[in-house]
Amino acid sequence: MSDLIEEIKQLKAERKAVILAHNYVKAELQDIADFTGDSLELSIKAKNAGAGVIVFCGVRFMAETAKLLSPQSVVLLPNPDAGCPMADMAAADKVAAYKAAHPDTIIVAYVNTTAAVKAHVDICCTSGNAEKIIASLPADKEVLFLPDRNLGGNLNRKLGRNMQLWPGFCPTHDRVTPAVIAAARAEHPGVKVLVHPECDPEVVALADVALSTGGILRHVRESSDKAFIIGTEIGILHRLRQENPGREFFPLQPEMTCPNMKKITLENVRDCLKDMAPQIELPPEIMASAVKPIERMLALS
């Protein structure tokens, strides 16, 4: 593996590339990355770095967002099969049809959507800034939140909104049940449960805190607790353990794994840098429209 890592480092230097790794990808990818974080955070860091070549170790919608924010850069997705089932649950043509039928409704898209969908919405949000974005919307306006019914439902409950919810969900987070929370508390009495707001509202209600991946990392850093039950994709445990030596982290359930996040390998990274492919390419009209709801979000957050 050391030879492979050295080859990647050499190719990265030759291509003047930056490697981004989402908190959920394999540990060895996080270890070679220039930046590790959540999807939008990484895209912003790549843009600020002015990288001509961006290697995004994540899933397709994340690489598309990086392309939207760095249109002049070559954006590489090391494994083109790394998709997001939740993003795919909102098809662009159906979102466009909803918009045409409900022209006065504000459409809010979780950043976990395709660029083609973003081209039809009014504003984007992340799991970290969603509360602020939704709270900024006029109270008398109809709002559609897509694609995650769980994140939207948690926001409705917390903010007292009545947003319409697209029927999408993250398969990894959606399979957590209240019984899983109860079992984890029984196994680790007194240990706080941190979950992602992509979990079902009934699960979130039973947890101690619901936070984005960045929020979980920050909460742990600032907490005096010595142990935590982590209710999100288990890839984040690598970074949590690296940044917080001497503390214990227990996965809420061992099978909290996103198969798509685990598709990218070191070999994929080497090959994409060598071949400069596969590249993320988006039609100019999609690029022009899809970046606007992201820019609106950034102006508010």
Automatic annotation (TrEMBL):
Domain of life: Bacteria
UniProt record, GO biological process: 'de novo' NAD+ biosynthetic process from L-aspartate
Xref: InterPro entries: NadA, NadA_sf
The protein's name: Quinolinate synthase
Keyword terms, alphabetized: 4Fe-4S, Iron, Iron-sulfur, Metal-binding, Pyridine nucleotide biosynthesis, Transferase
Pathway(s) per entry: Cofactor biosynthesis; NAD(+) biosynthesis; quinolinate from iminoaspartate: step 1/1
Species for this entry: Victivallis lenta
Gene that produces this protein: nadA
A Pfam match: NadA
